[in-house]
Amino acid sequence: MITAAVLAALATACALGSWRFTTARWTSRAPRLAVIVWQSLGLAWGLATTGAMLAFAVQPYGTGVLQGLIAFGRGETPPEAWDPLHVLALIAGLTALAVLVVVLIMAGVQALRARRRHRMVLALISRDDPGVPGVRVLDHPGAAAYCVPGLRSQVVVSEGALKLLSEDELAAVLAHESAHVRERHDLVLLPFAALRRALPWSKVVADAQSQVELLIEMAADDRARRYCSPRRLATALLRFGTAGAMPTPQGMLGVHAQHVMARVDRLIKPGPELAAPARYGFIALSVGLLTATPFLWVIPL
């Protein structure tokens, strides 16, 4: 019962923390750290919520969550008799856990299929250009720049983008898209897309997904700034915004119109870095969440 109560309290704390985190003002000063905090909150919330139900369900075994589930799977009879409330908690916990796993797998499969189809289309309608080596060029007058993530990742720009951007601006945009590819931001977004699929009615989940989308764009901007002028990247973003950029294909990473001005303001007027004590504090929080929750699944209390 203690394990179930602790996990329930942790799940509540993660839910409240996520709600408060949607209005945090420091995240743009340390986007990578903010993404890690979001990931730890989401994972801890999922494990704590399902773990609380399952811990109560396997209480008759007198063991931890994991050991109780193993015993149940083996068909062992618990020392204490089952009652309808424990059976209901078991059904609810296993159902919730299965839903989270299934939607994550479905989101991954859907993304892989979308990328495979898009690569097939690109093979037909795009071309190589000596002026931008390693980049696929779409013969389309609209402005577009995005990456196709995966083991065979590709960076794609349109003919309209090549005409719209100066040489320095194009280099900044390509550096940004290459950052998405190197840091595998598609894998960062996948759990949040899956959670949104599982909880489409939750405003907190929708806000979390939107914030993580913006944060990975800012993180890619930070890496691109190592190779180009931040003002060049800002002017490129403004050109995309005013020219009416093409929508990014499903499953790809590209420019989001709703995020352009926030990114431009940050590039032109960068704020101070997050103070070291706060940075270490959020790192400690993330590590604590990612270790405490699995620990509570294993250790009986």
Automatic annotation (TrEMBL):
<keyword id="KW-0482">Metalloprotease</keyword>
<feature type="transmembrane region" description="Helical">
    <location>
        <begin position="280"/>
        <end position="299"/>
    </location>
</feature>
<dbReference type="GO" id="GO:0006508">
    <property type="term" value="P:proteolysis"/>
</dbReference>
<feature type="transmembrane region" description="Helical">
    <location>
        <begin position="85"/>
        <end position="109"/>
    </location>
</feature>
<keyword id="KW-0472">Membrane</keyword>
<keyword id="KW-0862">Zinc</keyword>
<dbReference type="GO" id="GO:0046872">
    <property type="term" value="F:metal ion binding"/>
</dbReference>
<keyword id="KW-0812">Transmembrane</keyword>
<dbReference type="GO" id="GO:0004222">
    <property type="term" value="F:metalloendopeptidase activity"/>
</dbReference>
<keyword id="KW-0479">Metal-binding</keyword>
<dbReference type="Pfam" id="PF01435">
    <property type="entry name" value="Peptidase_M48"/>
</dbReference>
<feature type="transmembrane region" description="Helical">
    <location>
        <begin position="30"/>
        <end position="47"/>
    </location>
</feature>
<dbReference type="InterPro" id="IPR001915">
    <property type="entry name" value="Peptidase_M48"/>
</dbReference>
<protein>
    <submittedName>
        <fullName>M56 family peptidase</fullName>
    </submittedName>
</protein>
<keyword id="KW-0378">Hydrolase</keyword>
<dbReference type="InterPro" id="IPR052173">
    <property type="entry name" value="Beta-lactam_resp_regulator"/>
</dbReference>
<feature type="domain" description="Peptidase M48">
    <location>
        <begin position="113"/>
        <end position="192"/>
    </location>
</feature>
<comment type="similarity">
    <text>Belongs to the peptidase M48 family.</text>
</comment>
<keyword id="KW-1133">Transmembrane helix</keyword>
<keyword id="KW-0645">Protease</keyword>
